[in-house]
C-alpha cells in the first residue's frame, strides 16, 4: 500500500504491485510496468541508487 507524504505524493516501495510508470524517489529513474503479466510490476529496489521508494510518474 502506498503511503502519502506531506505534499500529497503517494510513495510506493519495494514489493508493491503497481501498474503504470514510476520514478525513483531519489534519482528519478523511470520504470514502466510490462505489457505481459496483466501489466503488473512488482517494484524492485532502484537498480541505480538502491532506493526502496517510488512515486507515480506523470
Ligand atoms: Zn534511484
Key descriptive features of the protein:
0% helix; mainly beta; 7 strands; binds zinc ion; two-stranded antiparallel ribbon; 5-stranded antiparallel β-sheet; 58 residues
Quick structural overview:
This protein is mainly β. Helices cover 0% and strands 36% of the residues. The site of zinc ion has 8 residues, from loops.
Ordered list of secondary-structure elements with their pairings:
Blueprint: E1 3-4, E2 10-13, E3 17-18, E4 21-24, E5 30-32, E6 41-42, E7 53-56
Antiparallel strand pairs: 1-2, 2-7, 3-6, 4-5, 4-7
This protein binds zinc ion.
Helices and strands, in order, run as EEEEEEE
Any idea what the radius of gyration is?
Answer: 11 Å
Bound molecules: zinc ion
The spatial strand order of the largest sheet comes to 1-2-7-4-5
The gross shape turns out to be: globular
Class by alpha and beta content: mainly beta
- Any low-confidence stretches, pLDDT <50, length ≥5? none
Number of helices: 0
Helix content: under 10%
- Distance N to C terminus: 19 Å
Strand count, sense and barrel status of the largest sheet are: 5 strands, antiparallel
Number of domains: 1
